Amino acid sequence: MRATTAPKTYRVKSFGCQMNVYDGERMAELLSQQGIAPAPEGAEADLVVLNTCHIREKAVDKVYSDIGRLRREDGTAPLIAVAGCVAQAEGEEIMARAPTVSMVVGPQAYHRLPAMIAEAAAGRRAVDTDMPAETKFDALPARRKVGPGAFLTVQEGCDKFCTYCVVPHTRGAEISRPFADVAAEAQRLVEAGAKELTLIGQNVNAWTGKDANGRAAGLDGLIRHLAELPGLTRIRYTTSHPNDMTEELIAAHGEIEKLMPFLHLPVQSGSDRVLRAMNRSHTTSSYLRTLDRVRAVRPDIALSGDFIVGFPGETEDEFRETLALVEAVGYAQCFSFKYSPRPGTPAATMDGQIAPQEMDERLQRLQAALQRSSLAFNLASVGKRCTVMVERKGKLPGQWLGKSPWLQSVHFEGAAGLGDLVEVELTQGGPNSLHAVMV
Ligand code: 5AD
Ligand code: SF4
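A: This is the predicted complex of the input protein with 5'-deoxyadenosine.
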């Protein structure tokens, strides 16, 4: 049975990418502003927002099992809102399949949640998957308290239409938030305690706008402006498309000290034939050339990427080209996935779908290669001195966990506090983290 009372407490559960983490935080702030309180740890919330991800099949299955799990023994359930990309893609289907769900709200419409909650409390279910002209950013409350590292959405959507990907369908066309809005939010985040800002967008390096003087600017111009903010010590950005790595953005890596030496640049495959079938509009050699140009201005840059194994038609030889690319690049860290056919995308109906066992085997081999690469990168960092931004307490007493400029997880012991920038020497490295001593 569906809940129909005004909620006093909420919980937001986010899945998937950093965009979703950001959206989840913004929804939480919106609900708090409405006088609904975050549910205490372990207690059931009156309102549960499932902020979903549609990028791969498993992510979608999770939504339905989560909805099922919210059902109480007597068959009732809290008020449930499904948000995010599954909401956008399968709104009506969720309503039909999951009778305990009261609200379905897409990633561009969640500023309308308060009105939907009022409707739901009156017993009316609603789906809102509009991509309205008014932007949610204008309707959301200002952020008052944030951790030392904060995300800031500057760009949303994607026009690239890679043949495997749902993002252009769920998040819509590329839009850039205006320069002044981003600058104002960055200022507020720094005032609220942020020391590191990660500018996020599905295609963040496609950001365009006009700077304070009305001149056309790209992401490099935005970063240059933010780097002037006193109190802000680190800037990062993610995720980028290889074709949008402009000369200016590459140059910024060599010139802006606050811009951290880390670049997440998905490549997906090491085979030019597969890249064409994916509609990636870059080749392995154009990708490698871009990396060379970044390395020329910032030799210590840590590189990261995304990979898909088992794209339809991928042969063993083509997969080996991916392994060869991994060897050639020397990534610091990467994400790798089995291809998942997404409804409505061209790749889903392509010939040559790869058997699940084959995909498992390729993913294992790729992940072993990526682990070796991360380990080699981390071992090469041992002996370096750097600053670590403290993000949380470690598992052992007196231990802290933070991030190096190269986005490595670093453990160390000593007198430090959350958000501190601590000088350390890296002393020991594994594939996923390093140890350090304070200097
Ligand atoms: N199957 C598997 N992985 C996918 N990705 C996007 N779509 C799919 C899909 N259908 C991966 C890509 C992308 C990352 C965010 O998710 O590697 O860069
Ligand atoms: Fe998806 Fe390709 Fe756009 Fe990335 S660039 S969001 S993989 S369509």
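Residues 9-128 form a domain with the Rossmann fold fold (CATH 3.40.50.12160). The first strand starts at residue 9 and ends at 14.
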